[in-house]
Design brief:
2 domains, mainly alpha, 257 residues, 7 helices, rod-shaped, single chain
């Protein structure tokens, strides 16, 4: 059946070709059986050649498509790996800044006892000078109320301006939380990335950005308070350095994607 259909199709093509020739050569003689057979064989050969060419083209296109697909896949894998390396380097850089802040905070904490003792000595001297100014000839003519008021003023100033223990505790807590957050983000592996949808990743990015911004604000708040209570040049320098590190953390956080 297939051979008959093929032969019939070929004969129809022969008739079509002869009709086309008669348009240009109306006086041409009617082709004989041998002519029709030869023309049919030629058409059949051309059709088979075209089928082979089409098959080869399809195979070539399939090979090209597979090659392109593999190339794009490798490029995407390398892109993802590159972004992961960049993310790890970014987290490492930010963790380094956080470590510097913690180091400074621990130094401030270690100096507190000595600083408080120094300030205590200063306050005692101030009180002595204040009392001598109020009563240069002794305390016979000074009321207990006036004496208590001057002592309260000086001790209040000492208590407010020197003690930064609470600020140090909160700043250490915020900085430690920042380190933990960076550790979690940099440790996210391929499996985690592969199961997150684009929407989920965007939400996680927004959540991380808000959390980092909050931590930076709180860290700055505590650093500013420490600065306002700074009673030595070393403390002032420490505050300046910590504020610079927080600013660098903010700049690096802008690169998180």
């Amino acid at each position: 059946k297939d051979k008959f259909e093929l032969e019939a199709t070929t004969l129809n093509r022969v008739v079509e070709e002869i009709d086309k020739l008669r348009v240009y050569f109306p006086d041409m003689p009617t082709p004989g059986f041998a002519d029709i057979l030869a023309l049919g064989q030629e058409i059949q050969a051309l059709d088979e050649a075209n089928e082979e060419d089409t098959s080869e083209d399809a195979e070539r296109l399939a090979a090209i498509y597979a090659f392109c697909l593999d190339t794009v896949g490798l490029a995407l894998d390398e892109f993802v790996a590159m972004r992961q390396r960049e993310g790890a380097r970014l987290a490492e850089t930010m963790s380094g800044y956080a470590n510097e802040i913690l180091t400074i905070v621990e130094q401030l904490e270690a100096q507190q006892e000595q600083l408080l003792q120094s300030q205590k000595e200063k306050i005692e001297q101030r009180l002595t000078e204040a009392l001598q100014a109020v009563a240069p000839n002794g305390f016979e003519h000074i009321s207990g109320e006036e004496l208590s008021m001057r002592i309260a003023q000086e001790t209040s100033l000492f208590g407010i301006r020197v003690d930064i223990a609470e600020e140090i505790t909160r700043l250490k807590s915020h900085t430690t939380e920042l380190q933990q957050l960076l550790s979690v983000e940099s440790g996210a592996g391929d499996a985690k990335g592969s199961i997150l949808t684009t929407s989920t990743k965007n939400k996680n990015k927004q959540s991380l950005g808000r959390r980092l911004d909050f931590l930076f604000q709180e860290m700055n708040r505590e650093i500013n308070t420490i600065g306002s209570k700074a009673s030595s040049l070393d403390n002032t320098q420490a505050v300046i350095e910590m504020k610079l590190y927080v600013e660098q953390l903010r700049e690096q956080a802008l690169n998180i994607e």
